[in-house]
Structures
1.
Amino acid sequence: MRDWKTQRTAREDRLAAGARFARGKTVAVDDLTAFLETVLRPGDRVCLEGDNQKQADVLAMALADIDPSVIHDLHMVQSGVVLPEHLDIFDKGIARRLDYSYSGPQSARIARMLFGGKIELGAVHTYLELFARYFVDLTPQVALIAAVSADHEGNLYTGPNTEDTPTVVEATSFKGGLVIAQVAEVVDKLPRVDIPGDQVHFVVEAKKPFYVEPLFTRDPGAITETQILTAMMAIKGIYAPYGVKRLNHGIGFSTAAIELLLPTYGEKLGLKGKICTHWALNPHPTLIPAIEAGWVEQIHCFGSEVGMDDYLAARSDIYFTGADGSLRSNRALCQTAGLYACDMFIGSTLQIDLAGHSSTVTTDRIAGFGGAPNMGSDPRGRRHPSEPWLKAGAEADPGTPAGLRRGRKLVVQIGETFGDANVPLFVEQLDALALAQKLDLDLAPVMIYGDDVSHIVTEEGIANLLLCRDKDEREQAIRGVAGYTEIGRGRDRRMVERLRERKVIQRPEDLGIDPLEADRSMLAARSIKDLALASGGLYRPPSKFRNW
Amino acid sequence: MRDWKTQRTAREDRLAAGARFARGKTVAVDDLTAFLETVLRPGDRVCLEGDNQKQADVLAMALADIDPSVIHDLHMVQSGVVLPEHLDIFDKGIARRLDYSYSGPQSARIARMLFGGKIELGAVHTYLELFARYFVDLTPQVALIAAVSADHEGNLYTGPNTEDTPTVVEATSFKGGLVIAQVAEVVDKLPRVDIPGDQVHFVVEAKKPFYVEPLFTRDPGAITETQILTAMMAIKGIYAPYGVKRLNHGIGFSTAAIELLLPTYGEKLGLKGKICTHWALNPHPTLIPAIEAGWVEQIHCFGSEVGMDDYLAARSDIYFTGADGSLRSNRALCQTAGLYACDMFIGSTLQIDLAGHSSTVTTDRIAGFGGAPNMGSDPRGRRHPSEPWLKAGAEADPGTPAGLRRGRKLVVQIGETFGDANVPLFVEQLDALALAQKLDLDLAPVMIYGDDVSHIVTEEGIANLLLCRDKDEREQAIRGVAGYTEIGRGRDRRMVERLRERKVIQRPEDLGIDPLEADRSMLAARSIKDLALASGGLYRPPSKFRNW
């Protein structure tokens, strides 16, 4: 007779071993490393909660202190590789294999370690597909997660940074796995319950809050006039004609500029209520002026943002908030919202090739992509119709009869033809391809594929790839907005002019925009201080963004 | 100064009004209609929990008893339209607008009511996109949900049918909405907490369990020899060469036949451990023999299935189960698993046209599609690589260099060339198109689009659409497996032969399958009783499936 409860039995063994260090469910932080050595097993599949914002930092440090002769060959399945400890465990031989999504601050070191063979790479995922695999073939055996507080039954309060926690806990706890949470404090009564205690096995009282990275804060003071120009073009040339109400903005100064132009330039164009009403979006401080001016109806968030918590709580008509009054975020559901309920994604990238493929990976940095590839892809299959989606579909595919013609999600790449340090945005070949060869990857780390991209916006113009009828037209449409980069200079001028006549390419003047108008005075806030003022003092920027 | 807490204030008004009928959070079932008239408002967006399985039936009945002069013009946003009351509320004028996903048992009546203008249709969604819109532009103001039991704080135990509940509650409760749950009983201590009490506002003690439909039970006794033949072809011609380990099966007898052939035919082919190990799947009773024979490693479920609960609890190494020992399902997460973590979807349909588009909608039945269009679509964009996905991608797109070439999800349509009542599976034009014209829909209710379909399996053969290089080849590949239907008889015989030489079409004999082998004796279970026996008595079939 086969034993069908081996996972439950294994968990009971871990629980019994761990209980030696626990009072009730609570483990003292001083015992943490010894405790982890007791409850972990070599080869375990472990999710160490590192979202792109909040970090189970105390658990990460303790994990990195483990004796690799006791616990080794862990298979880490986590969305963010953000803290040094996330890679230290590979250097020390505690972990061996990695499946992940995002690695912003560690992108250079992770590249070196991959080249050096220190990490056995599973795959670089999008958030939503990594979450998906948590329920199919990458289910964690142990989850090391972070919350604000716990009660004595192990119920958890995540506060505004709920993020990945419910998804990770659900996959782990309901499949015989062990859930260990770090919290700042154990209290008698929680402000609200984000995770029921019967899904949580041990609680570590860290006596300090988990670490959070202010990832979505962009200082309006750093927005350039070129970014303002591209933002004006995007609003007038894309948001307005398609009537984009439901959308997601990527991270970056170009989209921050759009957010700050809504109450000024957008107002002047009479677009209030007609665009940008419903969002799947992190709590961008640069959206505060538009919210205050009444542009926004509703925002669902992936996570929170440092300094925004009081503002979010005070704007519960806009944001999702809990019984305690504070934000409730949820990355898995917000990714789904971005995938299927939004009509547009707009974001920036580091490289775009002649087919419109783009990537933020370069040969010495493997940043991972987080949510952008889900937001920035057209999921095809069946979808509910909406006006922007139908209009975009009709442009892309005028030949198919309406009933059978699918719409298209608007996927917009926005950027300056030359980026930081004068590096060209447009390239013959993505660095991602060279990297794939070097690491012998099955699939180059492309972030957004060219056939999903609908528009590219630069200071030279908007290329509408939906209107391109073949590969050559696409290439020339891209070259036609690539400015003085080598790609731009390689254009076929006559073909580009024909594309402009067909409005495949639109220049600022075609849109009635004078580039000289693009002035910082148009921004609804010109500094972080302006944002704080616009929020009525509710937004409290982190100190590194304060200069007053 | 704008008031930014209107939703919270409105909820407090509803709570105060409802409190007159409540002791703590508990409302007596006799007061239910009067209570609903008090807490609802005309024009409310309401999610009445009707999943494709469990039903908030007591709440549905009470809602249908409301006085339409008090509460009217409700906008129903619910995944399943299953009970008569779900449509009665439109007949009575209580509700006006509908956004939904699935309407199996009500498909004929919903069609009549749409034609008659009794229902203002928003859109027919897939589950995942309706859930997505709950967080963007279809957020419920009131959720009427179902659970097994509640405690005095309003914590809920859903039992194995967790299904949509966490998603609906999260969208409603965290956006200022009101959550009302029907439960069979209020208890002092729950077996486990599926929904924290601070997300639940009122509890109705219905004194009986919610209604559940045994939707995924297929009697092996009704499986035909033709279905066995197509199942053999699918296993040998698709599952084996692609090495499909992670998959979803649609509802129907053809896929039930595949499940029942794994421990017999699949075993003979030496495929154990090589295919069908990880599933996103409802608890199909027909998978019991394969599970018992050790074929399956893990299954995550959308919902539960009537009669399967004890079996699921006793197989916790396979299924996701909670602290109480019973199944934990979750439709939103399982749909995501099917979308991004599975390499194959295989299912049946009612009509397939010459482009490979398919639909279960006919001119007098609008069934909705539930999850099939998410499962049965290739989401494109970026995905992690897997062997089946890469192999399928290489077949579809041999020209693109490997690093930039995306894989393809396997999306397989399986069926007999003539279905029930001798109706042909293959048609010139889908009835869905005529329906779209009749109802003036922007988008015909196509279930799975042709460009997502990789294979079509009938008793005549397998058409591999990945290998087709143009529209004509696709059409002839489809005609080439369409048997004696009019579509099949209209084939270009020489072209079909050429396609067969290229293995675009494979006949049973090309696969080394003798149609005479396809015998019911090959099924690992030939009756519902066999399934119950195979489960060691743990599967308890509903009485309508018992004949012993």
Note: Chain A touches chain B through 102 residues (CB under 8 Å).
2.
Amino acid sequence: MTDRNTSSSDDAIEETRDFAPRFNADGLIPVVTTDQATGAVLMLAYMNAEALEKTIASGDAWYWSRSRQALWRKGETSGHTQKVQELRTDCDQDTLQLIVDQSGPACHTNRPSCFYRRITPANGGMLLELISDD
Amino acid sequence: MTDRNTSSSDDAIEETRDFAPRFNADGLIPVVTTDQATGAVLMLAYMNAEALEKTIASGDAWYWSRSRQALWRKGETSGHTQKVQELRTDCDQDTLQLIVDQSGPACHTNRPSCFYRRITPANGGMLLELISDD
């Protein structure tokens, strides 16, 4: 979030040294996972408090699967694990950035990143186009 | 999302050329905004359908401010605009990536990115530490 109307409590959360992640009404926080080697955005996923604890404690990326309603260690079946290199929070602490050492493709479609299609004008509307440089 | 249990409908949304963004129950979709010049993650924000339309039509980044419950053209008061260079969707089309030419700092705290603090172990717990290389 980058809203400009700040209050003293906003300033506090923006400048504090206290890590106080703000989970949403479902108890989840979005996580932007990026590749330490390339800087690329690999995926967006969600953590609940337990996934965050496990990630910090283990050094492996754990998420909460909204579709399966279950904790999920990235790569637990595929082997495409994510080793945590750094964990960041944003200004208002309602989003995390996880910088990882990605083993194999991050996306379950076996692409390096989940963001493999760009939106492009075509036929008077918008179509998706595969990004060839991934 | 990178869940592994796919169905034919999952495959369809993952391989289709149709742009069909999946807004959440609040009518919003998260957007990871990155800097074309540096590749850095600048911020995570949200768009509703109108913000997405305005972004595509104008080439300027428009978002939905959850705190102000209003459409918001990034930089409309600060001047720190974002010119769209590319728009991507992820495998299941519930997240967007917006690659921009960022004018000035992206964060309202006047930092280049909203992700200016890392979580680091200290005093037996976790504390936030300013990232000096930003």
Note: Residues 1-7 of chain B have pLDDT under 50 and may be disordered.
3.
Amino acid sequence: MRIDAEFIQSHNGKTLSDHRESFAYLSGKLDRKGVDVSGFIQKISKFQIAIPSWALGTGGTRFGRFPGGGEPRSLEEKVDDVGLLHALNRASGAISLHIPWDIPSDVDAIKAHAASHGLVFDAVNSNTFQDQPAQAHSYKFGSLCHTSHAVRQQAIDHNLEVIRHGEALGSKSLTVWLADGSSFPGQMNFRKALQRTLDSLKEIYAGMPEDWKLFVEYKPYEPYFYSTVIQDWGTSHLLASELGDRAFTLVDLGHHLPNTNIEQIVATLMMRGKLGGFHFNDSKFGDDDLTVGALKPYQLFLIFNELVEGMEDPRSTNPSPAWMIDASHNLKDPLEDLLQSVEAIQLAYAQALLIDRPRLEEARESNDPAKAQELLQDAHRTDVRPLIAEARLRAGAAIQPIEAFRALEVRKRLIEERGAKSISTGL
Amino acid sequence: MRIDAEFIQSHNGKTLSDHRESFAYLSGKLDRKGVDVSGFIQKISKFQIAIPSWALGTGGTRFGRFPGGGEPRSLEEKVDDVGLLHALNRASGAISLHIPWDIPSDVDAIKAHAASHGLVFDAVNSNTFQDQPAQAHSYKFGSLCHTSHAVRQQAIDHNLEVIRHGEALGSKSLTVWLADGSSFPGQMNFRKALQRTLDSLKEIYAGMPEDWKLFVEYKPYEPYFYSTVIQDWGTSHLLASELGDRAFTLVDLGHHLPNTNIEQIVATLMMRGKLGGFHFNDSKFGDDDLTVGALKPYQLFLIFNELVEGMEDPRSTNPSPAWMIDASHNLKDPLEDLLQSVEAIQLAYAQALLIDRPRLEEARESNDPAKAQELLQDAHRTDVRPLIAEARLRAGAAIQPIEAFRALEVRKRLIEERGAKSISTGL
Amino acid sequence: MRIDAEFIQSHNGKTLSDHRESFAYLSGKLDRKGVDVSGFIQKISKFQIAIPSWALGTGGTRFGRFPGGGEPRSLEEKVDDVGLLHALNRASGAISLHIPWDIPSDVDAIKAHAASHGLVFDAVNSNTFQDQPAQAHSYKFGSLCHTSHAVRQQAIDHNLEVIRHGEALGSKSLTVWLADGSSFPGQMNFRKALQRTLDSLKEIYAGMPEDWKLFVEYKPYEPYFYSTVIQDWGTSHLLASELGDRAFTLVDLGHHLPNTNIEQIVATLMMRGKLGGFHFNDSKFGDDDLTVGALKPYQLFLIFNELVEGMEDPRSTNPSPAWMIDASHNLKDPLEDLLQSVEAIQLAYAQALLIDRPRLEEARESNDPAKAQELLQDAHRTDVRPLIAEARLRAGAAIQPIEAFRALEVRKRLIEERGAKSISTGL
Amino acid sequence: MRIDAEFIQSHNGKTLSDHRESFAYLSGKLDRKGVDVSGFIQKISKFQIAIPSWALGTGGTRFGRFPGGGEPRSLEEKVDDVGLLHALNRASGAISLHIPWDIPSDVDAIKAHAASHGLVFDAVNSNTFQDQPAQAHSYKFGSLCHTSHAVRQQAIDHNLEVIRHGEALGSKSLTVWLADGSSFPGQMNFRKALQRTLDSLKEIYAGMPEDWKLFVEYKPYEPYFYSTVIQDWGTSHLLASELGDRAFTLVDLGHHLPNTNIEQIVATLMMRGKLGGFHFNDSKFGDDDLTVGALKPYQLFLIFNELVEGMEDPRSTNPSPAWMIDASHNLKDPLEDLLQSVEAIQLAYAQALLIDRPRLEEARESNDPAKAQELLQDAHRTDVRPLIAEARLRAGAAIQPIEAFRALEVRKRLIEERGAKSISTGL
């Protein structure tokens, strides 16, 4: 199914006058503070967040999976789902594929299909954490770090193949999340494993087109429970530095030990020109992959404070980071969840843009933490929802995407189309 | 020094028209949603937060202390400081004393002094985590749990003496935070220590006036680093249950292991009628005692969601909890810090009051987590600052307390009065 | 396959003289310290650890599963596998079943089969965290706590059915691990959920035979990632207390927040007479379900220190706890892993038995933490492996179970019997 | 006081035959396994651990301090205390000074004094986390990272002065632990702070003699509670890499977030040739600074597994790390605590030396985690105390240092000499 512009316009009609009042009030206030509201809204509109193909179906845990219905049965239907989101919020204009789950049978057709939704293909993702049916060697004990040359070569070849698929689709980057690790003390020779991983990554890096970037994720645990080869940003940064100028660290919010100051990691990576991208989600305990902003919206805002500071610094050498959601939807409707996530990201971004940076720097220089806190809180406490809604309205999207999604009974219609028992490919 | 009403009125004048516009906008919106704005503001006004006497000076860590200036040199000056806060926000109408640091020399005089600021005396706090100069026995190895009967008796007697001081001042509750614990495996017989603690608490409980309450805090570590006798709410609840109807658990936000779901603990205690009180602060790593709302404002809101739900439940048997800030001000001006803390508490309370509870229950009953999240976020994302400001305005307090505090150069004047090297008694 | 006594005897022959020397040395030393070595070995021999039926196959994570081979295809083969373990170590004389995975088709036959291996049936486990094919209602949003009466009734009925199966097999207890929880703030009304859970448990409790016990597990998170209904021992203890004398808390080592002092929880529960049983495993990050003793053997020893103290206290009202391993074997051969786990438990138990308790109490009474530490470390640093080996030798088991397992090529033979692709029922 | 050799010899006499039996048994077993026991004991003997001057008195927490007695009142007496330890264990042959607490008035005299005890001066430590009485600028808001040039210069100058003191004493390295950080979001510009820190460190590095090393510590929090400038090994490594070949990372065991895999960090740093040194202690919750090995002896062993692997790797470019205890003694006698710590380090080192590395590598290469675990556990479960005792015996030290310390009533004599109220300088 597709959502047509008329429906959106008519749905917007119901809340338009309310919205206009709220927007007038807020833009008036910001105007008087010297904020260029139009420029502000343009920044919001330009900020596009990629949707991962694997987040369109119901996820699960090791204990079980409770499927919803109407899940996309093919790559085409995954593109359709992202198209639905983008029609509703005009902020999800990219899809990130996972190989081998999403190998297109007809590249041109799928590109045209995506284009018809206004979508492009973001970073491609390789998978060396599962064994595929026809696979010669198992990744049970690792892939790029494996003790056996044959396994490493298979994993390298897979990544090179992913790059070829991505090239055909117009992607410009490869994200490597390496599950490799160990579950028992003694199991792995840490130094050899790291060296082998670096050597493997070098071959992948060498196989990338000149205009591509390589994103190296880190994660402290899971699916292995004692060590992971790339346990933290320091290890990822070390690898990316050895690999070269087009290798970067990718930060996934859920991939940190309890209490980690993630915003400082972001700042450090941007200072080094090595922040490649972001996987947004939220969590309370581990890599819980929950809706962005559902648990710690202030932390998200603090991270955007660093991102905005880095992006707006004219001396920064850091390329514009890649933005992607990486979540798992065990309980909520995946599309509702993604709409909530995108909105939470936009709110945090908008609030971070509102921070009075000259006065913040002044407070910092004069060591006035109370004032610095006031300035951050002033931005965070501002109800910026009318700005996001206005950005959507101007882009032809819904003032209230989730309400529109529910009013249109999208899920019901998807179930009618695809069945109640469809399972998203790859899950 | 005292802040006179005229100053506040004149300071308010500068932002009055701005405030009126914001308040009109917000109250209009809430009106249309069916919120009784006046009743709402009355609830905010009635919500008073006690200030602990030990939070008025500069705190420190084991590594050092960097004093500010103008710290209160006596109990009278501590009362004055809380009076300053209360004059600015009309939300800090109580002071919580710590014995032996705050033993009044003339009870009637100090009561009259407090009354002149509009202050009452909240829970009194005992101290068995430090040795006082003239003390017969050391608390190095515990107090109420100590292996020696003489030490336990000394600690019991101290608590009874604290009750007597509190009675004279009009307090109605005793807060017992027990540092008792151990730093090494094997050091302590857990069961004997818990039994001795219970026995000691029984004697204290028996010594309380009939209309008093006993609050039992819990904390997982610090100042001992392996175990504490009352390590969690479960242990505190067990003790409070054994003690009787007037014994309750007190929750200090910083006294939890990483990732604890504190709001659920609050809900469980209220369900049992056993939540006695709250120590507000914020933290990232441990018992950091930072400004309330400075790190995790959404968590604070979620906690108030439970508190409001419990307080507004007509079937609840839980008495109205005691509200207190418990923070340590190592870097900020203590009074600015406390103004920020009180405001953060008020904002969280106001947002929690705004939650559309009937629809929330409906979402819960129909297992719609996306909708439940929308409802919570709608309340939390609302900029409720105009409501708090209006509550203050109506009570004769400052629209913007910190700005008023800075405009009046309160700290400068306190330093002139008390000197740059004054150290708050007890620190 | 079965392991016959002759093989074990002949395998023992290879290391017998080495063992005799080690045992002679150690028993000589202990003798001189006044330890009754024979009594000691009898205690070790009597300590039997139940094996859960679900730990006999390869486990997995949400990211995938890398199966081994020769996994048991039926309840009979699961009993056979535990029989193999018990033949090798004579310390795994019980099996704990999981319903509906392990419903016996012929109860008498399976009882006879188990008896032929020297095995009894330990606690039975219910499953309300997954949906079974023919199930009327889904547990997606909980079971005993569910908002819908029909779902709760279904879950209650399932537990009652589990009891009936257990009764037929000779079990004497039901373990309830409740996955119930929520993944998003606001999703669940904490108080109502806890009340409904208590009400449901009351019906199950009422349906137990008079000589049965109910074990209530707790867990802070997973498979839900914001809250669980029974988040900690305090909640479990509260439920068990309300239920009655035959309801107890069950401690699973992996079900705690970071840094929790588990040994103190054990001590408190035993003091209250409410420790029902134990699920042994080890972990670094969460509920990692790794081999017992693989990560934190000293913590395990400290827990046994409390267990032994509680078990040997003549005034204790706590019944003898149920001992069970609860682990997941993603990488190792499940049977090797279980042999390692049992040995680690035995070592910790033996070391805890060696603690010089009178002197420890003396050190505690005189507040001498250095001495208390010396006494614990003296026991833990003692190489007690010869004692465990001797206990095995006397019981007709292998001096070195894993070596025997490997020498006999058990896994190879199981693969021959059952195939390389067999998957343990339930996984 | 000094401990004379005769006392030790006579004290050893009491347990000599017991020791000889144990040693004979163990060395016989190791012999048969092909271990070169004499070479082994030489390695143990050569392993010397520096004692920090600040660990000789009673430490405290922010809540209080419970002093013992007989604390060293001067640098001379601190040297005496380390001399006492070294006499007892012949493994504490170095002292690490802290400036300004330990500025020697007569360098030659103190060097001679140390030499008379067989002691050398290890790394010197600077202090920019406290304000000294005569100091021009405050470190309240940082030192090397401070926004003010004058404060940074003062901190740089202090470090250069520390180097000069160290040079005079024969030290060869400077340890910089930088408390610098922030307690509130927004307070600090992370990137500027890190840049300023790097610039300041460059000046200190430039001021070091050619044969000196600079050790850069990291720590995630405390005394600041939101961020620290050098929050993790990645940041320290980044700074050390920028500084040059003689700058290294120093690992303090207590300076990590919960669940960090420290042993892997050690392995990574050694692989990069960047592990400069070690601060040993133990902890359960944070930087608890408890006795080494008191909480997590197996983790300590796993760390030594990596250290030994790195040290014995002929291709390693990592210089021999500096070994130091960094602990705080709040409850135990500081000297007893240090004796326990040194012994725990020696035991972990000895066990790590016992690991059968060829077979471990074989298990790793063949992905056999059960076997790898067996090999590590075999080493860790071996009671190596007789080897350490034998090393001490051969070096003229006590077979049982703590027993000797108690038999000699050292503390009692120190109190007689120095008084019950002496406070160690600097505390």
Note: Chain A has a mean pLDDT of 97.
4.
Amino acid sequence: MEGEPTRVMLAVNESTIKGYPHASISSKGAFEWTVDKIVRSNFSGFKLLFLHVQVPDEDGFEDMDSIYASPEDFKNLNNRNKAKGLHLLEYFVDKCHEIGIACEAWVKRGDAKEVICHEVKRTQPDLLVVGSRGLGPFQRVFVGTVSEFCVKHAECPVITIKRKACETPQDPVDD
Amino acid sequence: MEGEPTRVMLAVNESTIKGYPHASISSKGAFEWTVDKIVRSNFSGFKLLFLHVQVPDEDGFEDMDSIYASPEDFKNLNNRNKAKGLHLLEYFVDKCHEIGIACEAWVKRGDAKEVICHEVKRTQPDLLVVGSRGLGPFQRVFVGTVSEFCVKHAECPVITIKRKACETPQDPVDD
């Protein structure tokens, strides 16, 4: 008999271009790889923890077309963005339920690398999985920064999954 | 029924101070962690590939007390060092046989980070596991360089396992 399941945290984000509720290819890829290569058929041996970090724009506004007239509007904005994040997580939770793997999922806001490491400290998973696009210069720098920071600072082993060049979508709208 | 086992390459090295045939604490730790948290009881679902890279000293001589008088002496030196590396691998192969996990092990010489990435390209494992000491400044820089390079350049997902401060031996001779 095995003891407690291995708790694997996956940091997932939305598609750069399609936005919510679409998961990024690198997030889907990291999830599918984890199930295929690590969990395999040992469904009861693992529990997946999905963390989505919402990164506010530099000025703190996600939706430039909205009009903010009262503190209530900001509250609604936050709720709305949180709902978007929850739809993203729903994708992964549904998949886990289909497969039969226990899971938990939650949303936090802030700087992705800082929040991920803070959540690792708080929830103490056995393993953190971070996907990485390996795409154009901007994404490489950005995603590289998050994964490099986590490899150095997260208080648990970290697996970095690079996307292969052949997995980069022809049409960036699919990313 | 599951398909081919997940092939996990572990880059292992000898104790910094005790030398061959003693495995480093970080190598042992990475191996034990992989078995406990990834393989768990699914022994037939995984195959472990142990790679030990022998790093020549800067001047190419490991043994300053030996006298080299002919090309044969160099040949013997190489065989001797290779034998040391094999003793190191024997530790891990024995453990796998006790547990019942399929494995392979081999020795290569050269620059650790380059050789590891080259062997990943050649043998195409599903996952590369690299331990890291997280010790004093020299080791941190050295091991950090190897694991950082592999995270960026190895053509497969890479897991970096840092050693916890509490696992650093009181007596460095045990490292």
Note: Chain A has one domain: 6-56+72-167.
